[in-house]
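Service request form, structural biology core

Requester: graduate student, group of Dr. S.
Request type: structure prediction, single chain
Budget code: on file
Notes: please return the result as structure tokens.

Sequence provided:
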Amino acid sequence: MNLLSRIRTLTRIRPAPEPDLPEVAGSVAIILDGNGRWARKRRLPTAAGHRAGARTVRRIVEAGRLTGSAMNGQPWHFIVVDEKDALNQLGAIARTGPYVAQAPLAVVVSLERRSDQYETAA
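Core staff response, request fulfilled:
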């Protein structure tokens, strides 16, 4: 099948209906496990592995912060939580509570909901 035939076929394909999805995911986890193993493999102290993990978290948060959105609104905020009391409080309200409470840190993504967010001028 040549390229033009493939394009014509693709234009006839309709997306499958999506099931009802919640408005916002309950939680998303990025588990940075193995920082100590990473450091040992490189003959570095364990603390170097933890610093590398922290750099990775910063890169992930920055990538999320800079991700494009409709009409360049970026209606989100990222909050890195690493205080044990705050993690315990988050763990008490999250479905994945025990994991959050035991984690060394959590990234909270807060979404702004504005009714006029995507309105355009007439």
